[in-house]
Design goal:
The protein is α/β, with parallel strands linked by helices. The protein is 32% helix and 23% strand. The chain has twelve helices and 20 strands. It has helices at residues 8-11, 15-36, 38-46, 68-73, 107-123, 142-153, 166-176, 185-198, 218-228, 341-350, 378-382, 385-403, and strands at 87-92, 102-106, 131-134, 157-159, 180-183, 208-212, 231-238, 243-249, 256-258, 263-268, 282-288, 299-305, 307-308, 320-321, 332-334, 337-339, 357-364, 367-375, 408-412, 427-429. The strands form five sheets. It has a nine-stranded mixed beta sheet with strand order 4-3-5-6-7-8-9-14-13. A four-stranded mixed beta sheet has the order 19-18-17-20. A three-stranded antiparallel beta sheet has the order 10-11-12. The radius of gyration is 22 Å and the shape is globular. It binds 5'-O-[hydroxy(phenylacetyl)phosphoryl]adenosine. 5'-O-[hydroxy(phenylacetyl)phosphoryl]adenosine binds at residues 93, 136, 142-143, 212-215, 234-239, 243-244, 301, 303, 323-324, 327.
Length: 435
């Protein structure tokens, strides 16, 4: 009998009981932070809050927010809540938007993180008969080692192939019969394209993929599912909170269950900090409640999202978050209009284009310029020029209808846009050079 790693006693716990568990853990986590992290204690004192004020989740709003700036200010050891001798690992963000953030883990932190990732794998059907192909990068990035630990815990055969070397990826996939693929959605799209080109689709045994670490649309999901012949599931997380597995999708594919026995989620108005009711869109804020080395209270993620506690057909009771539509700092303001790259992806894929595109924003004569390079498929590339020009016009019109502003669309030759092996670089905003 195939074995699966599933924790129904936690994952389907009645909501009232779950909230009582969160309250109990929150009280302990706040005390842990107060006792061990002077930086936090100072922040709480400044807001006039002590651990005695936090009796349960109803008091969460009394705590101050923590932001990435706090993490940078306290770099590297300022938020460490456990003795260094008890820590066994660090991970770190890429630091593309400033100084790196380093997160610390005790062995217990790693065990709980592995649990979260094992739950994610189990939710997509993984068990001890599966071969999990981990193409997320290993190293400081959390994707590789996170899913790796989860796959071990779920009893799966794990291929720690890491990112890059697409030929080798496909070779292992066919030779070893990988059944579950873990990587970024943009790399999954690239792998799908490469498998098609090599004509080896029939030799691939994949049945599911766990894709995350960057925003991706429902259209992208459908594209990957069709090209690889699999079910594509979303997974979310961030280094500061452990890594992947903060939330994950079940077979319903309608949002990601947050591992609420480890994290409390709130949605706030990003401008005022006011907590918004369930169902409203705003910034996701997380509080860890079981961490030893690097606990975070009310951490502002900048990810824009909606929460829903609508009952799920899978039986899990943990609250779901919608696909984040991007980070508030991913949002482009072009000629005064708010534009999310995910909106552009939706239009392009609905129009039958490839998922290979790049957005270039610049400023000329004090006006923003807005160009989108989109790769043609091989068939389209062989079409006559008139057809290509007509398609460009059609894309400009559809984008205008979605965004409210005019973009210049350039259909470019197949393979002319660099593929990504990790998180895709979709936007080049040259205006930043002048600011
Ligand atoms: O990206 C952790 C991860 C690895 C998640 C593998 C899923 C799979 P960071 O590099 O710290 O950690 O980046 C965290 O990536 O705040 C979001 O903006 C974005 N992100 C992560 N997952 C998703 C997702 C990892 N499923 C930041 N959808 C987060 C949209 C995501 N955005």
């Amino acid at each position: 009998m195939a074995k699966k790693y599933y924790q129904p006693e936690i994952e389907t716990m009645p909501v009232e009981q779950l909230k009582a568990l969160q309250s109990e853990r929150l009280v302990k986590q706040v005390k842990h932070v107060w006792d061990n992290v002077p930086y936090y204690r100072a922040k709480m004192e400044k807001k006039g809050v002590t651990p005695d004020d936090i009796k349960g989740i109803e008091d969460l709003h009394k705590l101050p927010f923590v932001t990435k700036d706090d993490l940078r200010e306290a770099y590297p050891y300022g938020l460490l809540a456990a003795p260094l001798k008890d820590c066994v690992r660090i991970h770190s963000t890429s630091g593309t938007t400033g100084k790196r953030v380093v997160a610390f883990y005790t062995q217990n932190d790693i065990d709980l993180w592995d649990d979260c990732c094992a739950r994610a794998l189990t939710a997509v059907g993984a068990g001890d008969e599966d071969v999990v192909h981990v193409s997320y990068g290993y190293g400081l990035f959390t994707g590789g080692l996170g899913l790796h630990g989860g796959a071990h815990k779920a009893g799966c055969m794990t291929i720690p192939v890491s990112s890059g070397n697409t030929d080798r990826q496909i070779q292992f996939m066919t030779d070893l019969g990988s059944t579950i693929l873990c990587c970024t959605p943009s790399y999954a799209a690239y792998l799908a394209e490469s498998i098609e080109e090599r004509g080896v689709k029939d030799e691939i045994k994949l049945k599911a993929g766990i894709f995350g670490a960057e925003a991706w649309t429902e259209e992208m999901r459908r594209d990957i599912e069709a090209k690889l012949g699999i079910k594509a599931y979303d997974i979310y997380g961030l280094t500061e909170l452990s890594g992947p597995g903060v939330s994950f999708e079940c077979e319903e594919q309608t949002g990601m269950h947050i591992n609420e026995d480890h994290f409390i989620a709130e949605i706030i108005n990003p401008e005022t900090g006011e907590v918004l009711p369930e169902g409203e869109k705003g910034e996701l804020v997380f509080t860890s409640i079981t961490k030893e080395a690097f606990p975070l209270l009310r951490y502002r993620t900048k990810d824009l999202c909606i929460l829903s506690r609508k009952p799920c057909s899978c039986g899990r009771t943990h609250i779901k978050m919608r696909k984040p539509m991007g980070r508030s700092d991913d949002m482009l303001i072009i000629r005064g209009v708010n534009v999310f790259p995910s909106q552009i992806e939706t239009v392009l894929l609905n129009e039958g284009m490839t998922p290979n595109y790049q957005i270039i924003v610049d400023r000329k004569n004090n006006t923003d310029t807005f160009d989108i390079n989109v790769e043609m498929s091989q068939e389209m590339f062989s079409d006559n020029l008139a057809e290509v020009t007509a398609k460009e016009k059609q894309l400009v019109a559809s984008l205008k209808a979605m965004l409210g502003i005019q973009a210049k669309v350039h259909l470019v030759a197949p393979k002319s846009i660099t593929r990504s092996e990790g998180k895709a670089v979709r936007v080049i905003d040259k205006r930043k050079l002048y600011d």
